[in-house]
Write a structure and sequence with these properties.
Helix content is 16%, strand content 33%. It has 1 helix and 8 strands; from the N terminus they run αββββββββ. The protein has an 8-stranded antiparallel sheet with strand order 5-4-7-8-1-2-3-6, with no helix packed on it. It is globular, with a radius of gyration of 22 Å. The relative contact order is 0.23.
């Protein structure tokens, strides 16, 4: 009788642990879907009137970045991926610093040695609109250093692409969180 109870408990434990492994496998499969496209909708920080969208699309050569921003002053404006997907503060500071999981120095977007979040400058025309398209070979939509859930910050001034730690681009005029797109 005692042996039957022990066998029954062993069977229950095996079933429960097997079910747990099965549910974890299913969850793992879902979370391992390859992301092909992401989007960031930008909103103004307090006292500014900047808005726009930035899309990220996986290609064979890297991630295609397309930015369309409006409400900027004429000229160049630094824009970067920041470490937190938090735009809750009025000045955008809740987004933290540049996304830099590999601990590299700040640099130009075409440099292989740079913060992962370094995206250079947008250039706005007289009407305040900026459009930029390029292929980024450093940022990732998948894996441990994904940009998903991080934020994009647009700055008031030009990123000089060399000052440490962030390019001396001035106050933050817009912020948005990067999410998965269809």
């Amino acid at each position: 009788m005692k042996e039957n109870k022990i066998m029954a408990w062993i069977l229950v434990l095996l079933l429960v642990s097997g079910m747990n492994g099965f549910s974890q496998m299913n969850m793992g499969t879902h979370s391992m879907e390859k992301i092909e496209k992401a989007i960031c909708i930008l909103y103004s920080t307090q006292g500014n009137n900047v808005s726009g969208t930035i899309t990220f699309t996986q290609t064979e050569k890297g991630v295609k970045v397309v930015a369309d921003i409006r409400g900027l002053s004429k000229g160049k404006h630094g824009f970067h991926i920041h470490e937190f997907g938090d735009c809750s503060s009025a000045d955008g500071m809740s987004a933290g610093g540049h996304f830099n999981p590999e601990g590299k120095a700040h640099g130009a977007p075409m440099s292989m040695s740079r913060h992962m979040g370094d995206m250079g400058n947008l250039e706005a025309d007289e009407s305040g609109k900026a459009h930029l398209e390029y292929i980024d070979t450093v940022i990732k939509l998948n894996g441990p250093n994904t940009i998903l859930g991080k934020s994009i910050i647009v700055h008031q001034g030009e990123d000089d692409l060399k000052s440490q730690p962030s390019g001396n681009a001035g106050p933050r005029v817009a912020c948005g969180v990067i999410g998965v797109a269809k």
